[in-house]
Amino acid sequence: MVGVKRKNQWDKELEQLFQELQVEEDTPVEVIAERVESELSTSLKIGFFGSPGCGKSALMNAMIGERKTDTKITPGTNVTTHIWGEDDTMLFVDLPGYGGLIEEHTVDDYWVNYDIESFDVLLCCFETKLNRDDEAFFKEAKEHGIQIIFVRTKSDNLYDPNKSRRELKREIRRHLIYDVFGRDSKLVFTSSKTKLGIGKLHDAVTERLDAKKQDIFYRNAKAYSESFLKRKSKAAHRVVFKYSFLAAGKGAEYEDVLDTAVDVDVVTEMIENVSDQFGLTEERLQKMMQEDQEEVEDFDQIAALSSEDDISEQMVLEYMAKFKGQQRVANITKVVPVVGGMTAGFGLSYYTGREFIRSCEEIAELILEAEIQEKK
Ligand SMILES: Nc1nc2c(ncn2[C@@H]2O[C@H](COP(=O)(O)OP(=O)(O)O)[C@@H](O)[C@H]2O)c(=O)[nH]1
Ligand SMILES: [Mg+2]
Fold it and tell me: Is 216 exposed, middle or buried (CB count within 10 Å of its CB: 0-12, 13-18, 19+)?
């Protein structure tokens, strides 16, 4: 029953996506390509403000899940931008805080030099307390309508022999945040060491984003809960849509093995992209191989496709070939209004991506369960 429900859900999503993109029977391929590109080219920019050593880098890793990153340093500043996602869509900007300002910068020009208005969310990280400059800065940011979340880092260290953790948290919340910034301020206690509060921080971030940017966050951030994982799958779906469209579009070659015109190179990129979004690293997969791999159908094949080394087109071709000629692929094709010879290739690529997401989700669920179990 679950399978049937899920299938209908997927098809509904596909239809909805076509509606959103205003794709009709006779929409030219170039126009659709353009819409698909713009659909996924939005970027999300999150700022991490705080003094050096307060735990910003560790927090980023906890939020993302120890994945490889590209970094870019803005000349003349101490600003490092960490970039994740396809088309550089998720940016974590390491803001130095006033303690890390380089000589020629002052607190006064921080706002302009660090382009504060450009952030979707600003995480104000602190370990013990905020200084007066920080307070003034965040009051101003709040007045400008910038979304701020206060993050008390290293909360595993929260300890006082005479007070409970709860009391300590309440005091911090009241005295450092509510009394200074108002009761509508958001404070999250996190520990990058124990991962305490990271899921809560994810929720706080997504609550402050519009649907498109939420999608970017769900795709790129590490799941700490089943509900986050579900949203991740849903968001991954859009990426699969994009790649399927590109794989079946112009330049796709007729593939004998698959009996359709499809660009296997693009599908390979899609597979890499999706596995990256689910954080299926070599290390995690290795661990699973020893434990409960029999719970996942075709685990070895999925693991090979998710490995961090280059995936061969041959492997992808074999994986795709399994779905060739299936009724369910034909069902997708029926939903696709695109004319021309690309419909079959789209259906097969899309179905492949969707099945791959499903397998990744299953594996990620098992990893998540194991991680939760470890903590107990
Ligand atoms: N106990 C504990 N230590 C942490 C935590 N996060 C970071 N640290 C430690 O604090 C130091 C500075 O962390 P880092 O992330 O580099 O701070 P940054 O300079 O703000 O990027 C490192 O030695 C980390 O190991 C945490 O959640 N708990
Ligand atoms: Mg750092």
Answer: buried
